[in-house]
Amino acid sequence: MTTERLVPISIVGARGRMGKTLIREIVLSDSMILEAAVDREGGAGLGQDAGRLAGLHDIGVTVVDELRPRRNSVVVDFSLAPATDANIRRCVEAGVPLVLGTTGLQKSTRELLRSASREIAIVSAANFSVGVTLLTKIAGLVAGSLGESWDAELLEIHHSHKRDAPSGTALRIAKAVAKATGRELEGVMRTDRAGEHARPRERGEIGVAAVRGGDSIGEHTLMFLADGERLELTHRAFDRAIFARGALRAARWVASKAPGLYSMADVIGLGDLG
Ligand code: NAD
Questions:
Q1: Which residue among the candidates 20, 137, 158, 220 is catalytic per the annotation?
Q2: 253 has a pLDDT exceeding 60
């Protein structure tokens, strides 16, 4: 018999692709309950039953436009970057942990996240997939061992609706590569090599290219290129449920954690991602 408590969860961005997937996973789980489903003011679907919205049966939780988390619950936010600051502040006011999956965050939001994490426990990850978390860890290990004599280049592919580019995941992997070779990503990342930016590749730069189209849920290939050989590390997501399951694993984990800013690597026990 399990003695684990049921973790009540509020989903922000409930009507979105990820929001609906998260709701489905919670409804089908026996370790979590959906406390609230929140989406933006004025959007279609407000007042609708969240279970039905997610393609299941009625569950008696309607979609609302205000986040009011209760103590002992966890907020899981997969909405849009401009909404994030208000959601972080709500969690601090209510004293509840936050799992943040929204990407494309402004620098000021990342700073707010750091200061909020002195008061509440937060897991923030650009990618909640266990496979990508491992890829990021491996990227740092490989880059550290190969050094700058192998050229590191990253290619990411996502569906045509994605707003930010390069993906938060690509930036995170590139950051791990830069850090493993003793550099700051900002100084070495190249995202544009066309037109006036065209020139031969400089040693040590990390190219990051984004492809958009179709319904691709997310693919990341990290290449290490040398004269005569190439090493490629690829992760492909086939189902957005992997992100939802990872985020909900993080939500159950963070429910009992002290204030701090945690990563998915902490959740799965991998330690620092670099
Ligand atoms: P989406 O556009 O389908 O859904 C976003 C939802 O947020 C919409 O329903 C929108 O109405 C809602 N929203 C907008 N403003 C809001 C507000 N102020 N309050 C509450 N809700 C609001 O997008 P998606 O594909 O579901 O992705 C959502 C976010 O999650 C994006 O930033 C995406 O990049 C990110 N994402 C992260 C991971 C990860 O593992 N970290 C995985 C997939 C997607």
A1: 158
A2: yes
